[in-house]
Write a structure and sequence with these properties.
About 45% of the residues lie in helices and about 20% in strands. With about 210 residues, it is α/β, with parallel strands linked by helices. Strands 1, 2, 3, 4, 5, 6 and 7 form a seven-stranded mixed sheet that branches. The longest helix is centred in the middle third of the chain and has 19 residues, at about 110-130. The protein is globular. It starts with 7 loop residues before the first helix and ends in a 6-residue tail after the last strand. The model has no long low-confidence stretch (mean pLDDT about 90).
Length: about 210
């Protein structure tokens, strides 16, 4: 059986309908799993998906009264490096450094356990103090920080941080299950896959 051709218009409606549903917001039917979901899409769709995400976010806020906390990993990385006073040094070092060494440098500076997850926890705590009502977290900027920050390590370290709200990661690449390898994330459809099994494909969720 052939796989149905994907449609941005259809998927935009589906994502919106799922996220606004009581089942999604109340995190029902998860069988004690973490409330993490992934919308994976072809990297070539990036600009179109950005528009889709903006429209969905606006409608959820204006029509449904939801609190949508958008965490952009690229913006967060720049913020963290700037606060530590190393952003300009990182920019200056990048052209002359070996790519592997530069990647390892940034991975140390932006370790998900030590830096990314605590910053997201602080952001959510600040939002909790300022907002009321149903809340959903959108995790974006994933392609922009690859391979310095890997999605599976971020999600693993957010499992104890994002527990009160559902989280939807906007993932440029593929998230698929095979009998031989299990659930695999392949960012930008490049390189090796990363194993991560606890998130659910939002396109497979009932609206």
């Amino acid at each position: 059986m052939s796989t149905p051709k994907r449609s941005l218009t259809r998927e935009e409606k589906h994502v919106y309908d799922v996220v606004r549903s009581d089942r999604f917001l109340r995190m029902e039917g998860l069988s004690k799993e973490v409330p993490f979901f992934i919308y994976h899409y072809p990297p070539a769709w990036a600009l179109d998906v950005e528009g889709l995400r903006d429209r969905v976010t606006t409608k959820l806020r204006s029509d449904e009264g939801l609190v949508v906390v958008v965490v952009d990993l690229y913006d967060l990385a720049v913020q963290l490096l700037t606060e530590r006073g190393v952003w300009e040094r990182v920019l200056a070092a990048e052209p002359s450094m070996d790519k592997v060494e530069f990647r390892e440098l940034l991975q140390g500076m932006l370790d998900p356990h030590d830096h990314i997850a605590p910053a997201i926890r602080d952001r959510l705590e600040a939002e909790q103090g300022a907002e009321l009502g149903n809340t959903v977290v959108f995790l974006t900027g994933i392609g922009e920080v690859f391979p310095f920050i890997r999605t599976h390590t971020v999600l693993e370290n957010l499992q104890s941080v994002v527990t009160r709200y559902p989280l939807l990661a906007w993932f440029p690449g593929t998230y698929e299950f095979t009998q031989s390898a299990g659930h695999q994330l392949r960012a930008l459809n490049l390189g090796a896959s990363d194993s991560y099994y606890r998130a659910k494909d939002i396109l497979e969720q009932e609206a």
